[in-house]
Amino acid sequence: MLRILPLSLLAFTTVLSAADPAMSEKHRALFKDCCISCHGPEKQKGKFRVDQLPFAITNLETADKWQKVLNQMNSGDMPPDDEKQPSKQAKADFLDDLANVMVAARRTLGDQKGVITMRRLNRREYKNTLRELLGV
How would you write the pLDDT of the chain (136 residues) with one tens digit per residue? Predict the structure, then answer.
């Protein structure tokens, strides 16, 4: 029992010390070449700017913006057909990295730091709990 405790503490400490989810800097060139002309400081089509979008996802607002980028690029809507297109490999790498970062961000931002929120059971949940516990 005592040997398990230090190992679990080590795993817990490792999780807490992990850095915030962030996009790789290698993708900044893709944004500069294909996105800034329509979503930059001079022009903001769809009232969306990517030049000010931080690569580190530290809050829900930033995660929501990155989710919009992921959705638009996955659907093929961005970049539009009449604009400069990234290579298929660069786009696939970007989408793969972004999807992985979004999964990590969802875990990080969804964590409540060990706080358990108390709530009341509704009638159905209460009845099912009693049935499970008492077998009646």
Answer: 444 444 433 333 333 334 568 888 888 888 888 888 899 899 889 889 988 899 898 888 998 999 999 899 888 888 998 888 898 898 889 889 999 998 888 888 877 666 666 778 889 989 999 999 998 7
Q: 3-state SS of the chain: helix, strand, coil percent to 5?
A: 60, 0, 40
Kindly report whether the peptide bond that precedes residue 79 is cis, defined as omega within 30 degrees of 0: yes
Bridge partners of 44?
A: 39
56 three-class SS: strand
- HSE toward the beta carbon, residue 47, CA cutoff 13 A: 0
Q: What is the value of pTM for the model shown?
A: 0.66
CA-wise closest residue to 69 among 89, 98, 47, 40: 98
Tell me the residue type at 127. Answer: K
Q: Which residue has the tokens 């995660």?
A: 63
C-alpha 8 chain-centroid distance? 26
